[in-house]
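Sync notes, pocket subgroup
Present: LS, DG
LS reminded everyone that the earlier model was apo-only. Rerun requested with iron/sulfur cluster included. Inputs:
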Amino acid sequence: MEGTTGKPLYEAAEKIYPREIDGTYARLRIAGVLVLLGLYYGLAWLQWDGRQAVLFDLPARKFYIFDLVLFPQDFFFLSWLLIIAALSLFFFTALAGRLWCGYACPQTVWTEAFLWMERLAEGRGAARRKLDKAPWNGNKIRRKVAKQALWIGFALWTGFTFVGYFTPIRDLGIKVVTLSLGGWETFWVVFYGFATYGNAGYMREQVCKYMCPYARFQSAMFDRDSLIISYDESRGEPRGSRRRNADPKAAGLGDCIDCTMCVQVCPTGIDIRKGLQYECIACAACIDACDSVMDKMNYPRGLIRYSTQHAMEGVATRVLRPRVLVYGTFLAALCAAFVFALFTRVPLELDIIRDRNALYRDARPGYIENVYMLRVINKDEQPHAYEITVAGLPTVTLETDPAVIEVAAGEIATIAARVSVEDGAVASGGHDVEFSLQASDVPDLATTETNRFISP
Amino acid sequence: MDEQGPPGRPPDDEETSRDLSRCQRDCLVVGWCSFLIAACATMLFFAWVDPLALADVTDLPLPVDRMGGYAIGFFFFWLITAASALLTVYLIRTRHGHPPARD
Ligand code: SF4
Ligand code: SF4
């Protein structure tokens, strides 16, 4: 890659024309890409119990994940899930290096898809380079337009699917067809589509090199036993070209024929033979390239291979080491706690808000009254009727409007509640009063909240 | 390998200036990192605060639907995080009294 310092950003990023290579790992990656893209575009359409299976319904502030219905009040579960996801990344990085980058990172997955469309429209590496150099003519315009059309269409579909995880996708689809998409929905579809287009179409490995925090955190998670892609220096060196059937030993050469195939296929433009470098995204393209060269030369495969620094140094690789054990233990504990919390979760919540306008009222002679707003959140899949009681103060009574609280599945009911005590029953000042909410049909479905009762 | 330090070491400026200029890279990093943090902040904030309730208690001319509220919240956070990141990068780049490199 030649120096392009000072060139406009997008032009600079287009300068790499990595050579395409077929091989075991390329096929593995394509399989991974297909599975992940299929999941992303397909899952949004999956129905479950008559509604979208996975939907973070932002307009309604309710999250559906298959059988689970979460409310913003359950944010705890979501953040817990995010922590588990982050820790898994640590764990797998310690074990398997940048396996994530090569096969599962959205940046890789969408770049692969965009590369595929580019090849479809413009041909393979050498043909593309020629096309870019060629003057503008009918053929070039046709091919460039075809590429842009494919890219933009795919990017918009990606944006549409993305928004479809946040507002019901079927309604969204209907709105698109009838051209009645709302302003913000249109905006987010275009925004996300544009981000995809820029990142996967133009930025590509620049994202990995300059913008990815994970790539930088790695050094903290790596050690000499982590799986990396490396060139077997002791076997390859001294490198040098040779005739096909020459005996390398007689010529004093190692197994590397210095064909630079591994450099030509590298999407980040590095030479893996210089050792593990920060830019390497572990895409394994160089493994595929070198293996095909080794096959042609009738040398054993694996001059470049997945290995560890210890293995390369001739030291045994330890899989179970303190770092892995610590990450693993934490991860297991977090997952166990999460599952436990999820299954023992009471699908009911009571929020109490004191009437801000009046501390207390003496509306009825002989009684002191406090007024509250109760929010009863039924997080269950069934509708329920609830009874509410108060306790904690002498002579305390409660009146609600309406008297019986009925809440549909996944809905929130807001009701007014008056708590009163007889004059002189409690001392002046604030007192704790306990509200207990109990479903009439399910004995276990109950919750208790405490609030303040103010007396003059 | 060893002379190069541990894998994952950030590249120094010279090493990678071959494809993007430093200023472009700084802008990218500022934009992207502030975007990530703004996204997290938006999630956290709106997990506790309903945009409709927020519109009720403020005098600002906030939109009356939730999607608009989320969007404005997100861009508000992005503006703040980007401003902070930009200032940080600017101060680091000019810390020796040199003007920022214009390459
Ligand atoms: S592809 Fe293999 S043989 Fe060719 S230069 Fe790279 S390491 Fe050497
Ligand atoms: S050196 Fe290049 S081709 Fe090889 S795995 Fe790393 S990024 Fe991929």
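DG: Chain A touches chain B through 44 residues (CB under 8 Å).
LS: The longest strand of chain A covers residues 367-378.
Action: DG to write up.
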